Amino acid sequence: MVRLRSNEDSDPTNLSSKAGLGDEVALADRAPTADAPTADAPTASAPRQPALGLTGWLRWMWRQLTSMRVALMLLLLLAVTALPGSFFPQTPQDPTAVSQYHLDHPTLAPWLERLGFFDVYASPWFAAVYLLLFTSLIGCILPRIAVHWRALRAQPPRVPRSFARFPARGDRVVVESPDVARDNVLRALKGRYRTAVTADGITAERGYLRETGNLVFHLSLVGLLVSLAAGQLFSYRGQAVVIEGQSFANSVVAYDSFDPGTLFDPDSLEPFTFTLEEFTSAFTVDAQARDFTAHVSVTEPDGVTRADTIKVNHPLDAGGANVYLSGNGFAPKVTVRDGAGEVAFSGPVPFLPEDGVYTSRGVIKVPDVTGGQDQLGLTGAFLPTAFVNDDGTAFSMHPQPNAPLLVLTLWAGDLGLDDGVPQNVYVLKTDGMRQVYEPAADGAPGSAVGGQEPVTLYFEPGDTVELPEGLGSVTFDALPRFAALDLRYDPSLPWLLTFAVTSMLGLFASLFVPRRRLWVRLAARSDGGTSLEGAALARGDDPGLGRDLDLVLSAAGTQEHNEVAAPGRVPPPGVAAPVDAHSAADDAGPDDASPDDAGPVARVETTAGTPPAKEGH
Question: Which of 22, 26, 396, 606 allows an S-S link to 383, with CB 3.0 to 4.6 Å?
């Protein structure tokens, strides 16, 4: 076997070391010696890579998770996973629309339900992306805070040995003594730079607010995530319909629907109440809405009562909760007497508007009739400004109640309320009921088979109509209005606003605060004056670097008029000599621990220069 020379015995760049290479071929024909390995001897194996192991793999995954690339991917993924919440109805916000989607798409809807598309923000996959992004941000920020803190406490970098290679530099001779010139320079730098006086001169640095703003921006993002999570855990939301003259008490039983946060205790509801005194609206002639106002009297938990209003986008603050005006309509007050003449029902019934002229639909259920009689159900429409055609059809022309008309059809039988199954108050269940028709010619009860028409009842305010078949009577007593209210309690709202503002401030600081270093060397002259030499360095393109250096040198004192700067030593403001920025950075001494010092240093030139280094994550 041929034994190759080791690196210690040969130098591949030295031709004399190759003088004996041709003799090595002959060694193959020689008998093996004690020092030379035989053909059967094991040869040296290739170096093996060390196994990562469990700890190594965990460390690798953590570094990947806390990298900027993965953080940006998670941020984009979070936006993508939130999109289904815009495409599909969400159960917490609109359960009725979700039920309708099930009816319209009986095959697709069950799969979407299993995958969480009807409650996106509570789905496991959305929470997974949310938590990963949160962890990634924390892993990125904490090490940078420690590095930035050490950089803030460190002294500015030492004065370089030579200023010849810096993009911005200048000379100046002043008549003041070195001590006075030094004080003047320090005074010009005060408040704008961190300064230190060394034996080599004055060193100054500014721009740490840039990295501080970067960290504040990322910390604010974490704060926004935490606030959003806290809002989901400790908030509640509920809806209620309140009719003029009626009151609402903040308790679970008073809500039409109530959705508490995961960790919210319903027993901790603040016991405030309010009464809807009046609801007013304003419309144009062509039925365009102009104003909606709910006039309420509020009683706070401490017993203090005040008058207030609720408008669109102007909620009421009561007991720490915001009360929003989400809808309105009419609630005709009717009185129903059964066949025995007893009052079976009396009160206002909300009718829900369906269009811009407030054509409203509603249901009146009358279960409490005298024993042995059929329960009654009336369903139909309310028309604020009604117009009836010759064929009997009616429609509304305007949302204001200028000519109100209540149009109802009649059902009799079993409402099904005694079965113990909850029902929608705005839907009449007709499985156990029959529709009442106009009487036959002989006075007998009518039917569809006999060719009679269903009974249609028309009411104006104050009218009383007798029901056929001796079922009783209905009176249209009054026309109060109702307000649909959305009550929300979210303790995270002030924090969300705070972190949103601080994130914007941090972003502005990280984008617009310049990072600069400046040095001034002073030397005493024989005539008692001072000779100053300065240089400046910026990270990224900084058109104001040269002007800033000239301002500092000018503040040192009165320039000697007979002194002419050496040719080529003072470039015009904002224009630098063609130098190697990397060498200038080397002359500036070792960088401190700040992450901002990474990357190349840009030249200060009027022509296209090196693109500015980008901030790290």
Answer: 396
DSSP 337-361: E-TTS-EEEEEE--BEE-STT--EE
**What per-residue confidence (pLDDT) applies to 371?**
82
According to the model, what pLDDT value does residue 569 have? Answer: 42
Rounded mean pLDDT of the chain? 81
Query: Using alpha carbons only, what angle is made at residue 147 by residues 145 and 152, rounded to the nearest 5 degrees?
Result: 90
User: Is residue 10 situated within a structural domain?
Assistant: no
Q: Which amino acid is at 481?
A: R
Burial of 399 (0-12, 13-18, 19+ CB in 10 A): buried
Measured CA angle at 484 (ends 344, 312), to 5 deg = 155
Long-range pairs for 608-616: beta carbons < 8 A, 24 or more residues apart: 609/541, 610/581, 611/541, 612/539, 612/540, 612/541, 613/539, 613/540, 615/210, 615/214, 615/510, 616/68, 616/144
Distance separating alpha carbons of residues 269 and 69, to the nearest angstrom: 44
If asked whether residues 282 and 353 sit together in one domain, one would say no
SS3 570: coil
Q: Domain ends where: 465, 499, 533?
A: 499
* 321 and 442 both lie in a single domain: no
Distances, alpha carbon 268 to alpha carbons 55, 232, 298, 547, in Å: 47, 16, 19, 63
119 pLDDT above the threshold of 70: yes
Residues 6+ apart with CB under 8 A from 563: 173
CB 242 within 8 A of CB 482: yes
559-598 residue pLDDT tens:
876 554 443 344 444 444 444 444 444 444 444 433 333 3
| Lowest mean pLDDT, pick from 34-43, 226-235, 278-287, 345-354 | 34-43
Is it the case that residue 80 has pLDDT exceeding 60?
yes
pLDDT range class, residue 44, cuts 50, 70, 90: low
DSSP, res 5: P
Report the alpha-carbon distance of residue 42 to residue 162 in Å, rounded. 59
Neighbours of 154 (CB within 10 A): 13
Give SS3 for 382.
strand
Do residues 164 and 134 share a domain? no
Together in a domain, 317 and 305? yes
Asked if residue 101 lies in contact with residue 113, where contact means CB atoms within 8 angstroms, the answer is no
Is the pLDDT reported for residue 483 higher than 90?
yes
Sign of CA dihedral 395, 398, 404, 406: positive
346 and 471 co-located in one domain: yes
**In this predicted structure, what is the pLDDT of residue 45?**
62
Domain identity same for 143 and 245:
no
Structural domain including 425 reads: 333-478
Residue 46 confidence class, pLDDT cut points 50, 70, 90 = low
pLDDT at 405 over 70: yes
Q: Stretch 449-475: mean pLDDT, rounded?
A: 89
HSE, side-chain direction, 13 A CA sphere, residue 190? 8
CATH number at residue 538: 3.30.310.80
Residues 560-570 pLDDT 10s:
765 544 433 44
- In 3D space, the residue among 283, 292, 290 whose CA is nearest the CA of residue 315 turns out to be 292
Q: 506 with 214: CB under 8 angstroms?
A: yes
- pLDDT value at 262 more than 90: no
Read off φ and ψ for residue 87, nearest 5 degrees.
Answer: -90, -30
Distances (CA, A) of 322 to 294, 419, 582: 14, 37, 59
Give CA 267 to chain center in angstroms.
Answer: 30
Which amino acid belongs to residue 522?
L
